[in-house]
Specification:
By secondary structure, this protein is an all-alpha fold. The chain has one domain. Helix content is 74%, strand content 0%. Helix 4 runs parallel beside helix 9 and helix 8 runs antiparallel to helix 9. The longest helix has 31 residues.
């Protein structure tokens, strides 16, 4: 669970210059290398949590989620907000370390869900991952290529994301609210919101690169972009996996 900061500022005319600069290819490679590196760290962390005694810190003797689980859950949420708000005050290397720290926390936090699904419906995990990857790739390409200004989506996506986070937090207290039809609707909305966020973020990052700046700022942008795209990808995966396991 995380909140994305959508406040990167760009000028509309800058988009025309983004693709003409050959350096944008290196910039995008850096973003996706960091992002998929974070996804790999999350996958490894989840595996280690499930198949080693590390998972024991997440549940109590009665089988409920432990206090440590909630510390990690809310700590990860706070870290994602803080890292995005302070992205341009960190060295790029510090930002990358925070990204991977966040990826580790998310790997631990989602492991109970993955453990449950691995027992009840194991094939849904690779299926959900494959669909999430395909959707992410298509929406990222659309966001990069489209000439339509997607900035109007920002406020709606942010409001949708806040609504999803609030529902997620409420479900920790009243799990019944995400059962049945309402839970299915929430997951569908989650898929739509984070698929559109992927396109929105890609266009915003491309425009931000076109604004120029020194290498440090571009590296900071790359880390921020990797974090935002990572959040979208992981959220897509979680909501799709939930749709596969509603029963």
């Amino acid at each position: 669970m995380a909140v994305k900061n959508v406040a990167i500022k760009t000028k509309p005319d800058a988009i025309r210059h983004a693709q003409s600069d050959g350096g944008i290819g290196v910039y995008l490679k850096r973003i996706f290398a960091l992002m998929f590196g974070a996804v790999a760290v999350t996958a490894l962390t989840s595996w280690l949590t499930i198949f080693t005694p590390l998972g024991g810190i997440l549940v109590t003797a009665h089988g409920s989620l432990s206090a440590m689980y909630y510390v990690l859950l809310f700590g990860g949420l706070a870290l994602s907000i803080w890292a995005q708000a302070r992205a341009f005050s960190f060295k790029p290397s510090t930002g990358a370390l925070l990204l991977f720290l966040y990826a580790i926390i998310i790997g631990i936090v989602i492991s109970p869900m993955l453990l449950y699904v691995s027992v009840s419906n194991p094939m849904s995990i690779p299926m959900a991952f494959g669909i999430a990857a395909a959707m992410f790739a298509c929406m990222a390409l659309f966001g990069y290529k489209t000439v339509k200004n997607l900035s109007f989506l920002g406020i709606f996506l942010f409001m949708g994301m806040i609504g999803l986070v609030l529902v997620g937090l409420a479900s920790l207290i009243w799990p019944v609210i995400v059962s049945g039809t309402f839970g299915t609707i929430v997951s569908i909305i989650g898929v739509l919101v984070f698929a559109l966020f992927t396109a929105y973020d890609m266009q915003t990052l491309k425009n931000a690169y076109a604004m120029g700046g020194d290498d440090t700022r571009k590296n900071q942008l790359a880390v921020l972009g990797a974090l935002q795209l990572y959040i979208s990808f992981v959220a897509l995966f979680q909501y799709i996996l939930d749709l596969f396991n509603r029963n």
